[in-house]
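Quick log. Single chain, no ligands specified.
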Amino acid sequence: MRTDKTAAQVAGSSSCPASGPVGVGELHREWILVGWEKQVGDGPFIFREKLGKYYDFSAHDVVLYDDFDPQKRVAHSAEEYGTFWEPSFSALRSVRHHVVNGPEVASGSGDLTASTLEFEALIEAADGKVTRIRTRSSLVWRCSGAGWKIIREHNSSVVIPSVLPRPSAELI
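-> predicted structure:
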């Protein structure tokens, strides 16, 4: 069931908006479509500049993971997570995203809520090689004095082949 209201907003105990441009659903959509987008000619990727409004840089209970990271590392701070992505993302020529499904927002308890969405990305390397991925993204957000901030992230990606294999004669 999709809802943009969390238990905290219904109970009145949270100061973060339940919906609208700074509600979790729209923030998750903006996080991928703006924060992780890269146009041809963009300068170096500075994680805090591009995505600082979404992550809690002061929390000590952060856990962030994306299986698209070749080293499969887990970050325990937003600052550390940025160091995973700045070199490789800066080296890319462009990255374009579109949302395939969601966001779906689930009620949490207190000042926590979770959201999921599925997106596809077309990633162009500096050498012109293009990779297409489909990713399922799950985020946990905490309401802070600065609004909703990500404290948990789990992204699972699959590479989509550019040319699908031709079915074998047995399958026809």
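DSSP finds four helices and six strands in the chain.
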